[in-house]
Design a protein that fits this description.
- The chain has an eight-stranded antiparallel β-barrel. It has a four-stranded antiparallel β-sheet with strand order 2-13-12-9, with no helix packed on it.
- By secondary structure, the protein is mostly beta strands.
- The radius of gyration is 27 Å and the shape is elongated.
């Protein structure tokens, strides 16, 4: 009788242990983690500065001299100008470290896994664009990301050890803007080298792979693309006291607005370590 009871007890314990292991191998549950990687700049080809001579909010105008010529015919470069002419060259944009933390929750049904997460990172990415006028002079716009946050979904397929997923959702960024120029004739608002920090909103999309290391720990590899709409925040107005024939006040005596025409877009490659509760 004792042997029967012992065997029954062992069978119950083994069944409970097996169920516990099986439950531990699902992806359902909350988690906390951190990530470390690199923030990468996008290709700079095609970046330009746009103009609004009528101050009507419609960018795409051409700044012209009193003779009718394009005052910015020397063109643009995807970086910060090193001199008043394109021949002086431009600096390259900077990539940097991407580091932060995240929290989320996943649900698994069969092999299908769906979840949601929030993360905040410090992504050290700097981006610049410059315009050159015939005067000659340069007009350079720079922006630097201070922080970025994301609220995203994760959807994919999971085995007991591996979870492959796609991710996407909304993004918020804290972006530092700065304008500088070699033009000493016009005044600018905000002025030269004035630093402005603004919030920008956009989206994120990417994918990744999460692998269990053992126990409650897991390792993640992830690619993420971020796009933030910050063009309006970087607008600068060129004003007098130049003569009325000055290209910036030729159409409107109040001046002309300048801004870059592209969204702040960058990529991140991350490795992460998470603890699942």
């Amino acid at each position: 009788m004792f042997r029967v009871i012992t065997r029954a007890a062992l069978a119950v314990a083994l069944t409970a242990a097996t169920a516990t292991v099986a439950a531990a191998q699902t992806w359902t549950g909350p988690y906390l983690g951190g990530t470390l990687g690199a923030g990468l700049q996008m290709d700079d080809a095609g970046e330009v500065v746009t103009f609004d001579t009528g101050l009507d909010g419609m960018f795409g105008d051409t700044i012209r001299t009193a003779a009718g010529a394009d005052a910015f015919s020397p063109g643009f470069c995807g970086g910060l100008a090193m001199g008043p002419t394109p021949g002086a060259g431009c600096t390259d944009d900077d990539a940097g470290i991407d580091a932060g933390g995240r929290a989320g929750y996943d649900w698994q049904r069969g092999m299908f896994v769906v979840g949601a997460l929030v993360d905040v990172t410090r992504t050290d990415v700097r981006d610049g664009v410059s315009a050159f006028s015939t005067t000659p002079a340069f007009y350079a716009f720079s922006r630097e990301l201070q922080a970025v946050g994301g609220l995203r979904a994760r959807v994919g397929f999971g085995t007991p050890r591996v979870f492959v997923y796609g991710t996407g959702g909304g993004a918020w960024g804290r972006v530092e803007h700065q304008f500088t120029t070699s033009n000493g004739v016009n005044t600018f608002a905000p002025g030269r080298d004035v630093v402005r920090t603004e919030s920008a909103w956009g989206y994120q999309a990417g994918g990744g792979l999460e692998v269990r290391l053992g126990g409650r720990w897991s390792l993640t590899g992830e690619y993420l693309f971020t796009s933030l709409d910050d063009a309006e925040d970087g607008t600068v107005r060129s004003q007098g006291p130049a003569p009325a024939t000055n290209p910036f006040i030729l159409v409107n005596q109040a001046g002309s607005d300048l801004r870059r025409d592209d969204r702040f877009e960058f990529q991140a490659l991350r490795a992460g370590l998470s603890y699942r509760f």
